[in-house]
Design brief:
InterPro entries: Bact_HTH_transcr_reg, Chorismate_lyase_/UTRA_dom_sf, TreR, Tscrpt_reg_HTH_GntR, UTRA, WH-like_DNA-bd_sf, WH_DNA-bd_sf. The protein is an alpha+beta fold. The chain contains 8 helices and 10 strands. The relative contact order is 0.14.
Length: 237
């Protein structure tokens, strides 16, 4: 378990328990005391994990009763969350692998500099990865790390970039601003994706910030149309 963010690991495990039916819709989660003993953590850590479950539409708090599992259709791709592909792969039980196509320090493309509000000529670490689902090339992930990050080994990028940045480099990744569009295929879509006659892809563009509000990453994930439904969960405040 990640010692730095125990509550997030607990959140992922409880979310998986809910998704797999260990805790069916309409049932109560175990009490905070029981969960604290299960994971050998404090009740405060459990509360933080429960807040994530609440915010992501997995549970509802009932006064005097506890946390009840919400009956709703699970989405395939979290629009509102900031989730790494490895975390998504785990929570959705995906048969998935990753291949690095490009990993180099270069000048940030002008269109991305404009989107991120950065000056033209800014340097970055540019990464292109293909995500394979059920052995088919389904997603192209472009990542541009905008700070002065040293080169990152392909083996790390094929496992988990965020796990490396958070656990090894001490990054405090906090939030992202996202834009979702449907766009015509580009040359690299045609080259790397198994398209089955598609003419467009779903594109999720994100600017990602650290806890201190530093913009450190621009991402662009290009998804085959038939593989993901983008559904959000809304809670009235």
């Amino acid at each position: 378990m990640n010692k730095k963010n125990k509550f997030f690991d607990i959140y992922l495990e409880l979310e998986q328990d809910i998704t797999s039916g260990v805790y069916p819709a309409g049932t109560l989660l175990p009490s905070e005391n029981v969960l604290a003993k299960r994971f050998s953590v404090s009740r405060e850590t459990i509360r933080k994990a429960l807040v994530l479950l609440l915010e992501n539409g997995c549970i509802q708090k009932l006064q005097g009763k506890g946390s009840i599992v919400i009956d709703r259709e699970r989405y395939s791709f979290p629009v509102s969350g900031l989730t790494s592909f490895k975390e998504l792969q785990k929570s959705e039980h995906m048969n998935a692998t990753t291949k690095v196509i490009r990993n180099e320090r270069t000048t940030l493309p002008d269109r991305i500099a404009d989107f991120a509000g950065l000056p033209h000529g800014s340097t970055c670490l540019a990464i292109l990865r293909v995500r394979y689902l059920e052995e088919e090339a389904t997603i192209l992930d472009y990542d541009y790390l905008l700070d002065k990050t040293e080169p990152i080994a392909n083996e790390i990028l094929e496992d988990s970039l965020y796990q490396y940045l958070e656990n090894e480099k001490g990054y405090e990744i906090s939030y992202a601003q996202k834009e979702i569009t449907v766009e015509p295929l580009n040359a690299e879509d045609k080259k790397y994706l198994a398209l089955h006659g598609d003419t467009h892809v779903v594109v999720v563009k994100s600017t990602v910030f650290l806890k201190d509000t530093t913009l450190f990453q621009y991402t662009e994930s290009r998804h085959r149309l038939d593989k993901f439904r983008f559904i959000d969960f809304a809670r009235r405040r």
